[in-house]
Structures are given as C-alpha cells and as structure tokens.
Amino acid sequence: MPKKAESTPQPPVIVLVRPQLGENIGKAARAMLNFGLTELRLVAPRDGWPNPDAGPSAAGADIVIEQAKVFDTTADAVADCAHVYATTVRRRNDTKPVVSPEEAAAEIHSAAGRSALLFGAERSGLDIQDVSLARKILTVPINPEFSSLNLAQAVILCAYEWSKFETLEQPTVTDQLPPAPQEELEGLITHFERLLEPKSYFFPEDRAEATRRTLRNVLTSPGWNALEVRTLRGVLTHLSRGDRQR
Amino acid sequence: MPKKAESTPQPPVIVLVRPQLGENIGKAARAMLNFGLTELRLVAPRDGWPNPDAGPSAAGADIVIEQAKVFDTTADAVADCAHVYATTVRRRNDTKPVVSPEEAAAEIHSAAGRSALLFGAERSGLDIQDVSLARKILTVPINPEFSSLNLAQAVILCAYEWSKFETLEQPTVTDQLPPAPQEELEGLITHFERLLEPKSYFFPEDRAEATRRTLRNVLTSPGWNALEVRTLRGVLTHLSRGDRQR
Q1: The whole model's pTM is what?
Q2: Do residues B135 and B221 touch, judged by C-beta distance below 8 A?
Q3: Least CB-packed of A164, B31, B77, B209 within 10 Å?
Q4: Which of B214, B218, B228 is facing A224, going by the closest CB pair?
Q5: CB B171 within 8 A of CB B109
C-alpha cells in the first residue's frame, strides 16, 4: 500500500527560496492554485511568516497560503523530495542537465517520488548552494533581450506545464455540432442555385459550370452544422421575398 | 513580393479590450516582450492613453508601450487580421471551436495572415460582441475551482506557447490563401444585413440582436479568403437584382 502511494506521481512542491515581498508570495500561491498546485514551501522568507501582504495578492488562494510551510534552509525544504529542479531564467554555465518547463513536467509525471521546483529570490535568484541541491536546471526559454520574468510568472509557467500533462488523458469534449449531413448541404447549394439562376448569375453559359463549382466550394468549405445550414436557408428564403411595405 | 510577405506567419497581435488599470497594461506588455511579442493594441482603455501607470509595471518593456495603438472598437482593432481568437478562462456555451493556447500557437505558426488574440477587461472579460468577431475561442485549461487568472498571466501563457513554436522548426508556409482581413468579412456581413433588413429578417425587434449575432457567427466561422468573400458579395449583388426577362 505505501509502496503504491509512493510510486504514484505527485504534484510538485513549489519552494520559494528567501522570497522578499509577501505580495509576491501571494501571487505565486495564486498562480499555483490556478493550475492545481497546492503545496508551497518557504525558505527563510525575508519578512517572516505569516506575512499579511500575502493574503490579498493570493486573491482567494487561501488554502495555499494557510498550508505553506517554512524552513530554515533549502536543504530542509527539499529533504523529502526525490527530484529537485532549480529554476533559472538565464542559462548558467552549469554542468547539470537543463530542461524546459515542458520537459520537467513530463518527467515529474512519469517519475516516482516527490518533485520540488526551487525558485530564487526576486532579484538575486537562487544561489550556488541552492542550485547544488538540484539534479537538474529548469530554464524557461525566454527572450534573451528581455528576460525579467517575475516570480509569479515563472511559477505560473511551470504550474501550467504540469497541469497540461495532468489533463492530457481527458478527452477534449466539444460542444460543437458536427457538420450537417451532405444532403442538407446539397439542399443549401441547390437553394442558392435556384435563386441565382434567374438572376443571370451563371452567365455566360460557357462559364456556368466553373461558377457553380466555385459557389459549391465556398459553401462546402465551412463545414456548417445543421443549425447553421438552417439559418442560411432562412436567409435565402427572406432574400427571395419582396420588400415589406412595398 | 507582397504575396510572400502575406503568406509568412507573423507574430500575433495582442489586443486588450477595454483594459481598466494602466498597471495591468504595463504588466501585459512585459509578459509579451518576455516571449518576443511586441505589437499591442488597446481598445478604449478606461483611463485613456498614454497612461502613466503603464510604464513602471512594464519593467523595461518600453518599446511595447510606446508602440501600442489605440482603437475605438474591437472591430477596428482587428480589421487587418485574418485570424481572431477570443480568449476566455471559463468555457462558454458557445458554438465556436475552442482551442488551447498550445493549439492556437500551432495554428498561428502554420497560418498565413495576421492573427490577433483578444483579451477582455480585468473583471468582466470579453463581451458577446467581442467574441462574435472571433472565429475561435482560446481557453486556458485552468483549475475549475480557482480560475481567477489575471490579465498579464493570461497574456504570458499565450505568448509563451507562441514562442515555443517560434524556436522549433521553421514554420511551414502554406499555399492556402489566408482568411480575408476582418474588414472584408465585415463588408460581407453588412451586405447580408443590408439586404435582409427590408425583408423583415430581423423581426421581431426584441430578437434582432440575437439574430444578427447568429448570422455573424455563421459567416465568421468559415474563415473565407478574400476571393471567397468576393464570390459571396457577387452572389448577394445578383440576388438583390430583379429577375431577368420579367
């Protein structure tokens, strides 16, 4: 039983290392919950914890804030984690493997054991000690000429990629109706032709066939559903009437 | 030469519809530039434009702020765009196709013609009129129990997905003509409406708006190219003529 639980992939833990502003912790919590992550760990938050600035910017992600755990060191925060990723925006000259948010998400989903994503302080990022705890570097592939990604945005991109794998199995259910049966489409095309015939639309005679084909293509390509075909039949019926109050 | 330019995929335009806070416009600009997008359009920003609050939160994405263009209506803002996506967080009961940020990014990369992503105001989102301009709905697959995604975060997820494709292979350029620019589509819709008006199609009065929207949706979904739109304009012109030899 415990073995099974342990081998089931679990959502990653988000670890904010020495975060400065409570507001940013709140925003990170909100970003996490947007994509279904709830486990937040804080390493030595500058202004202590709890921080009254975190709640408002969490915008309702209270559960994440309330359950956040505080640790003195990054090593303590990831002690129970099997897979630690150090996120960085810029590429470092590092010997560790570098993965994208997408690759990390795929790994987390196929891995047994807990995963942790480390995010550094707002300005300084992760220091070399923090990075040394990680087996891999997670780098967001960003515009090299403008790479000031804020903390919550880095978190949301990682959470988003994780959630994509989470929902992959779910078939996309669409509300869309299928295209109308061909005979209904034919009815529409015939309706058009019947109205256009007396209006000299298919003249000259030697172009008539090509003109019909063009019209058919224009009406076939949309793949209208039965309701849409019915709407257009109604349009045609109205167009063929005399104006009102004439 | 112009033909080639037209068939090369271009980065999408980000359109913020009736944004409220300058701060959020700045954050959206920053999110865009993080992933290489630079073309921002604003529809009727609540506090006018330029807005002194935008610059600081853009955090250096000045080029995006400075080049932002302002429009009175959403229709004006997307007039030159062939592919318009209306972004929403929650699923709507809508008949338009729904795509994820990833699917939209893939489409934008393989499509010819400009693409626009519409983002609604902070609280209210896009209204039904804005959505009716779009051929597709772009929905971020978010935690259904906590879906308060802020504007800049919605923008960054879309920009991020776009940039992922940008760094993959060179985009495949298709021979297909792109959908007609939005203003040509508007011309077609207006043409239909003008002809239908005197035929009592939009009666009773209290259903008129919904009827117009239905018609607009039926005519928007196909993504007809300029030639197809021209064909249909010709069809309408003929239908409005008297029968020959009468």
Answers
A1: 0.81
A2: yes
A3: B209
A4: B218
A5: yes
